[in-house]
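Lab notebook, page 48
Experiment: co-folding of the full assembly
Goal: obtain a model of how the components sit together before planning crosslinking
Operator: M.T.
Materials (sequences as entered):
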Amino acid sequence: MEDQWLKSLITKTPQEGFELAITLSRKGVRYTQPDPEVLKKLRPEYANDPEKLTAASHVIAVNFQTIAAANNYWK
Amino acid sequence: MEDQWLKSLITKTPQEGFELAITLSRKGVRYTQPDPEVLKKLRPEYANDPEKLTAASHVIAVNFQTIAAANNYWK
Amino acid sequence: MEDQWLKSLITKTPQEGFELAITLSRKGVRYTQPDPEVLKKLRPEYANDPEKLTAASHVIAVNFQTIAAANNYWK
Amino acid sequence: MEDQWLKSLITKTPQEGFELAITLSRKGVRYTQPDPEVLKKLRPEYANDPEKLTAASHVIAVNFQTIAAANNYWK
Amino acid sequence: MEDQWLKSLITKTPQEGFELAITLSRKGVRYTQPDPEVLKKLRPEYANDPEKLTAASHVIAVNFQTIAAANNYWK
Amino acid sequence: MEDQWLKSLITKTPQEGFELAITLSRKGVRYTQPDPEVLKKLRPEYANDPEKLTAASHVIAVNFQTIAAANNYWK
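Observation: model returned without errors.
Model output:
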């Protein structure tokens, strides 16, 4: 269904790891709602509601836990 | 009650692991609401609401933690 | 208060582990609302609401993390 | 402020561990609302709402992760 | 911005660890809303709503996971 | 898209680790809503709602888990 988009959890820096966590979080949404037009339409509702923004940050935090562990915390 | 659908948490690639996380997340719903007709009817309500899409992505993130650990982060 | 219902976290297969995660999630509800009549009455409201179904799947995912770790991911 | 109520995370069985997770979850509430009269009054509202029951089960699941790890999963 | 309030995650007992988890949870709120007058005004709304009390207990549970791991579960 | 803002998860003290967890939580919001004017406008709504404050504290707690593990709990 999907092209290859996730080859590895390893990143060079913690910041790239955080950005990969954002990608995973968005992919979790896109697998459920694959239509880019719908997603674009939902965006303003989404990006202007503090509750939804916090919820987005929460999902990123969970994915960042996974990626940080995969990278042995870049130590 | 259910056929065998989960034989292993091991996947060849991180992306297949992510897709297995999606399967687990959906199975968690289906064990609670097994009627496919009901699930189909609920889908539009679900896939057009940013809050619910983020919640779905959150569950996937939790299941992906489990699968990534099982695969030793594909290292 | 309760009979013995949880003897071990060890299961033969990942799928049985997932089903045990469902049991734990339901038990968490039943310890708070032990009346089976009330629970039966709440069920339709519960099983037809995408938000509540996702929340149920989330709790299962958290319990599955515990059970998967207990079983060393069935490796 | 509080008497000693938590001496150890170690339990004899997984089920006692699950019941300790329930105790921790309730204590988390009681530290925020210590008045038993208020808590009793809130209980019916709480125990008859599927969303709140699932949220309670979620907190129990998180505390059970901690207790299960403390007990090395009773292996 | 803040005085030193967190010197160590190590506590003598699990109960002190749980109480430190409560402190961390409250600090997470105070960094976002530092005005004590506002916080005092919000308290009644907060402490009389079962949903919000469960949410508070959830945050405590997450912080307690961290502290329990830091203390090697007081074993 | 973003300047370098996250060089390391290592901090000198637990408190600096907690403050880094706050930074990560806010960055998770800012990647979704990068417009500082919008964020400023949303702030009062955010900082005066107990539910949203608890949700913010929850995200901080998840990020603090990651940072505390990265620092081996400052032991």
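Interpretation: The first helix of chain A runs from residue 14 to 32.
Next step: discuss with group before ordering constructs.
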